[in-house]
Amino acid sequence: MQREIDDLRLQMAEVQSQLAFQEDTVQALNDALALQQQEILLLRRQLELIKQRQDEQAVEAGLQTGQPGSPVDEKPPHY
Fold it and tell me: Exposure winner among 8, 17, 35, 75, fewest CB in 10 A?
């Protein structure tokens, strides 16, 4: 009987150890995911700014040359 109790205590300690390890792992993964999300948002914003700047430069180039700013502004040849 005592041996069975000791075995159960060992198993319980092992389960607790595994649970603690899993909790640490989940927290580390959560922290990494949160950091990646922040980086994605920053990169997305930078991309938006680059696109905006590119669009502005295309319009300016079109104004200087007298050409439309972008292919979207151009009418098809049949017009």
Answer: 75
